[in-house]
Structures are given as C-alpha cells and as structure tokens.
Amino acid sequence: MNSADLGRRVGVPSTALFTDQYELTMVQAALKAGTASRRSVFEAFTRRLPEGRRYGVVAGTGRVLDAVENFHFDDEMIGFLRQQRVVDEPTLQWLADYRFSGDIWGYPEGEVYFPGSPLLRVEGSFAECVLLETVILSILNHDSAIAAAASRMSAAAGGRRLIEMGARRTHELSAVASARAAYVGGFDATSDLAAGFRYGIPTVGTSAHAFTLLHDTERDAFRAQVDSLGRGTTLLVDTYDVAEAVRAAVEIAGPELGAVRIDSGDLLLVAHRVRQQLDELGATGTRIVVTSDLDEYAIASLAAAPVDAYGVGTQLVTGSGHPTCSMVYKLVARAGSAEPDAPLVPVAKKSLGAKSSKGGRKWAARRVDEHGVAEAEVIGTGAVPEELAGRELLVELVRGGEVVAREPLEAARERHVSARAGLPLSAMQLSRGEPVIGTEYA
Amino acid sequence: MNSADLGRRVGVPSTALFTDQYELTMVQAALKAGTASRRSVFEAFTRRLPEGRRYGVVAGTGRVLDAVENFHFDDEMIGFLRQQRVVDEPTLQWLADYRFSGDIWGYPEGEVYFPGSPLLRVEGSFAECVLLETVILSILNHDSAIAAAASRMSAAAGGRRLIEMGARRTHELSAVASARAAYVGGFDATSDLAAGFRYGIPTVGTSAHAFTLLHDTERDAFRAQVDSLGRGTTLLVDTYDVAEAVRAAVEIAGPELGAVRIDSGDLLLVAHRVRQQLDELGATGTRIVVTSDLDEYAIASLAAAPVDAYGVGTQLVTGSGHPTCSMVYKLVARAGSAEPDAPLVPVAKKSLGAKSSKGGRKWAARRVDEHGVAEAEVIGTGAVPEELAGRELLVELVRGGEVVAREPLEAARERHVSARAGLPLSAMQLSRGEPVIGTEYA
Fold this sequence. Notes:
nicotinate phosphoribosyltransferase; pyridine nucleotide biosynthesis (chains A, B); homodimer; 35% helix; 15 helices; alpha/beta; six-stranded parallel β-sheet; disordered N terminus; 2 domains; TIM Barrel
C-alpha cells in the first residue's frame, strides 16, 4: 500500500507487462552470457524540448515509484510468457522472483528541466534496470507532456481558476494521469471523478446541453438544476439565446447564482456582454466560466475579459501540440564484470547523427546569478564543483528497492510554482523560443 | 467475463468513475425534476475529420462494450461520492443500483467514417444514457485517432510488415489500447507485452543499444544474443559502425541471421548499403527492420528501399499529428414525458457557430456507384430509402443492456481492409485533402 494514495484499487494488478518484449529477451541473453548482473546505471533524459518550448516540467515521478513497487510477474503473467515462448525457463524463473532492488535518484516531481537533464538515474544490475525502461518512459513521457501544457496555461491564466475537463478526449486512464499532471502543473480542479477518487484532486462539474434539451424549456432545465443543486450551481447559458438564458438564470436562481458557463461563440465578446448583463441584474457575484477548445493562447487572449475560470479539455490532455516528450532511457555506465565492486565504465552509443548520447553517471545542478535567477543547467560526471554545492537537482527516490521519497501531490504542485519562479522571466512567454537557460557540461 | 477477451484481469474494477462529475449532478437534478426517466437517444459523432484527413476509422467499439458492461458503482465508489458530497442520497441509491439496460447501435469496429456519421447511438432513459458519455467518448476518441494513423501507415507500407513500438511514448494503458487500435488499422504486431496478454495481439522484440553497450565489444553482444535467442533473432547494427556491425552479425549468426535493425541515420541510404552488404555476405534472406521516428510519410518515402519491416512508435501512438478525434455525444431526441411509450421529440442545440447539431434519431448508409465504389455517406431520420436498403451502417451492439455483438479483434481488422478498399482510390493519398466522400442528409 502506498502511503501517498488513498488506498484504493486502481490499475492492473502489476505493472510488469507494461514492457516491450525486447527487455525480456535482452535479460535472457544477458543471463546466459553472464552479463545480466553487471552493475549498471541507466538515465532518463531528453535530447531536446518540444519545438519552441522554453522549459519542461517533470511529472509522473510519484506514479513511477508506484510502478516500480508494483512491478512483479504473477503466475498468470508467467504463464502467458511461457505459452507465447517469449523467453526460456531460466529467464521465467528469474522473472518470477523479480523485485527491483536497486537505487533511483531523480529530479523531484514539479521541477523544471532542460535538454540533457538527467531526470531519473536508475542503478542496479543490468537486468533489473533494463526491465523498467518501458514503464518509466511511458509515465514520464506522458505525464510531463501534460504538465508542461498545464504550466503554460496556468502562467497564461494568471491567478484565475483552471479546471481540467479533458477526460473525454483521451484514453480513460490517460485522463486520470492527465488530471494528476495538470494539477502538478497548476490546475485547480478536474471534472474527472476517477482522478478525485485516485489522487484526491478536487472535482467540479457544471452542466451539459443535453440537460437543457431534456427539458421542455430552458427555464424548466434551469429550475430543475437550481432546485436540486442549489443557487451556487453553474448554469450553461448557450444552448439557445445567451441573453435570454442569462435573464432566466438570474430570475430563477436569484443574484446568488454561483456561475454561468459559456461554451461557444466569441468568448471575449460574449463574456463582456454576459458580465454586463449579470451586473445589471444585480448578480455581481455570479462568476463566468468559459470552455470551448481553449489553449494557452486563447486563455491569454481572454486576460482582459471578465472571466473567472477556464475549463480546458482537448488541448490540455494532448499536451497543446506536444502529446509526448522525447525522453529516452539509456545505459550510461556499467561494470566490466559481474563482481559487485567492479568499477563503472562510462558507455555511449557512437553512431553519427542526433542520437548519440553522453556516457557516465551524472549529477545536475542549476546555477543561479547574483539575483538568484537560474542561468544554466549544469550537468557533469564525477565530483560536483564547490560553487554548485546545495544546488544539486537529483534527490534520492528509491534505496535498495524501497521507495524513500513519497510525498503528497500538493508538494509537487508547490515545487513547480517555485521552480518556475526561479527561471528568467522569459520562461513565461508563450511565443516559440529556445530553452530559457542553456545546458552546460561541467 | 467477456467472451472476446482472454479472461485476464485488467483495468480498474469498474469503469463507472471514468466519468465527468456533471453527469452525476445532472442525473441528480433530473431525478428530482422527474425527467430522468424520459426515453432518450444520444449519438456519438464528429463534426469534422482532423484537418486534411480523408476518412476516419472506427476503433474502440469492443472496448466500449466492455466499459458499458463494467460500468457499476461499487461500495467504495459510492462511499467516495458520499464523502465528497458529489450527489445526494437518493442519487447515490440510484447509482448503487445502476446497470445500463438500454440499447446501443453503432458502426462496427474497423468501419470508416465521415463528418456526421452517427458512430454510436445509445438509447434508454436520459439518466442511464447520460452517465456513459465520458467513458464512451474517451475510448472512441482515443482509439479511433490511433487507428486512423495506423490505417494511413499501413496504406503507405503496402504489404510490408508494421510493428507497433510506441508504448514508451504514451500512457502505459493508453499504450495497450493503442496497440489494439493499431492492429485494427492494419499493424501486424506490437512490442507491448500487455497488449499481447490482454488482446492476444502478436508480440515481437528486437534488441536495444543498451544490450550492445553492456558487453565489452559489439561482437560479444551479438554472440550473447545469438547464443541465447538463436540465429533467427534481430541484431541492432547501428551502435557503432554499421558496416562493421553487419559484417560481425553475419559472421556470428551465419547467413541464417533473421534480421538486422537500423535505428538512426539516413534510413534510405543505409538500408540500400546494408542490403547490398548482406547480399554480398550471402545473407540474402536476412531481413531489414527500420525504426526511428517513422510516420506515414517516412514509410512512403522508403517504398523503394530494401526494407522488410517498419517499427513505428511516437507518431503512431500520438495519432500522427492528431492524437484525438473530436467526437461528441449529443442528446438528439427524447420523450416529452416519462411515459414509456411517449413519442420521441428531436432536439438540438441552437446556438450560432460551428457547434450546432442535427436533431433526431439517425440511420446512416453508404451509397455506392455502379462500380461499387463509395460515393456518399447518407444520413437521415425516419425510414431508410429503398435504394439504400442493405447498405445501412449501424449494427446492433447492445440489446436491453446485454452485449450482443462481441467479435474477435481479427474481424475488425479484416473489416477495415474491406471498408477502406470500398472507398475511392484517392482515400489512400497521404496529402492533405477533403473527406473522400461527402456527407448527405436524406
């Protein structure tokens, strides 16, 4: 049982099959060759940010810890692998006993990152580390993409409320992880009940056009909603004529009406009109929620509009143009023999082109200028230079197979706010640009 | 237990919380107003295809049927909703008893679709149908987006083998659904073990750079792999120097070497060189697998290259630029009272702009020309014109709450091949264009 979750059953019984077949066949070949137990260091990192993005946001770390803890092959899975002849009997025996017993360090959740940042460093035997590749990348690539979009949207929204409403636009469990990542990135609530159930994220709801259309008149629908849900409810006012709907809404709910939602039309124009009308009707405290294919640019363009909350769906859960990150999981060092104290040798792919990578077990630190503003992501192997002491980014997450760094989701959410605030101001620009600080190799 | 699955535990115990909160509050208000039991018809459709796409592919129908069957609120869920005060006690009671008891018709999985196609038609009481909105849309929007990308890739690949390798680029369960949708869209296999476990999709694997780097030399690595996995294995030849690696590979495995994988560089050029080298070494039967950020355009550009199989990751699982469809789930007709035989009244949102929709319970049929080639998607309400008899697209999926249309995944895969073959040839063009047939309202 994870202390950070609500003790609720979720997901598959084990994460072990969220794995590419080649991880298992590599384990088989390495077991036979006697190289499976060579001490190894894998790192997850990205060679570049999505085009035009100025920073990345680490999200999913908490889910990675759950995944590592729940990574074990039960009898049914072993039976499947045997039946499909994926690997041989000695490997099946090894898999049946598998529990990750190594160490993991990484950027804490909510932290920002840049090209080359060693987001996660996994150490142990080759076999135990290589098995985790696919599930670690699935989680980090997905969740970080959503959190990055959420962070841009929350920067654009200023202090206004942001509601995640994208469940219907993505896979039903991706939706739950998206709500979680959006919360890390600065969203305030979600419409997704499973995200509330699983992660304790505040859930909210408004009303749909279907509810209005179910009733004989719009007024009947409003009356039904207010009767049952109270005056604090949010009425959807764009099924027929907005001005008429706003009039009816205030007439039925009174000036205590909680909010109205606008889901179509020119939101800037309509929001102004509706605000004026609400004020004229005395409903000065009634809030305006807008939805309808919003992204960070649309949110920014509504900065001057009398909008109280944004509901964001499609563009959030699809990462606003970048539905995945390009994180990879690479062997960067390994021992030259299976001896436990054999020294680590840095390794790296040497092929031409953009896919080469830097060998060696890495540390990372963020150098700041005299005002405390970040000026470089410094990455190195070996000893950390004295001037960077206290600025190191990796924290211990798993020690000898035991998760040691669980935290409430709020902690990641708060960390993101302060990490982003430590970047140069240009990080908040929505326009396309280069990473806001450079990556330096010490 | 679903007859179409392998009887394996997967997913959450129930799909009922993959639901936006407003579905539940609307049910509460409708229960109180006495309108919850009005007979209603909801339809899932899309107003447009993703920009430039010529056809859509229905995928996820089988998963929708599973989701409907498993949509029930267990005690823990009810407890959560009570604790969070999402809805009142009478509504909790109603939810605790909830089982969908209505009817569902829809386009069969693998079928192609166009703007306006009524992909799923859900009939029952308002309350029982509205609850299913989010999970139905999650599944159809996600799975159809992946299947559409897969279909374009399979068209571009001609008869060459396509392997889904995108698990690491998307949410771990989205990956499983993606492998399933890709299979429907024409892929042959997946690297994702969970997809093999859950859906019986053939799984395959090659090898990673980490395996080569683990060993003291590339030759050691190749020897280890061939020793353990046999000569039929796929060796990765681009860790250091490709020509040297190919020479070593054939030397170690002999001309019976199964395949080599190339994962970087100018694939067209490298594939030609590798083929020539393999042939010179007598390994004329050794296949060439290419991977590395492939999409349908890259696949098409390799048509003249001596490539035997494509491994596709990122671009497949992110829908090749369109990670979601824009399907919506709208109330199109409902009774004017709660009487079981009250006639259905068509309803539709009337707001200005692109978000209006057509009311009424719909049928759809594909009209063909004298050569049997599709020429229009015809949609109507009321009686189907005689000339379209036998060309109707919706099939019965659920009758009185019971799933009546389970089928093996192969059936959907085969249906897609024949549905696509029935379209005008321009459907296969990868360039941006309009939907290949128009939508007509009868």
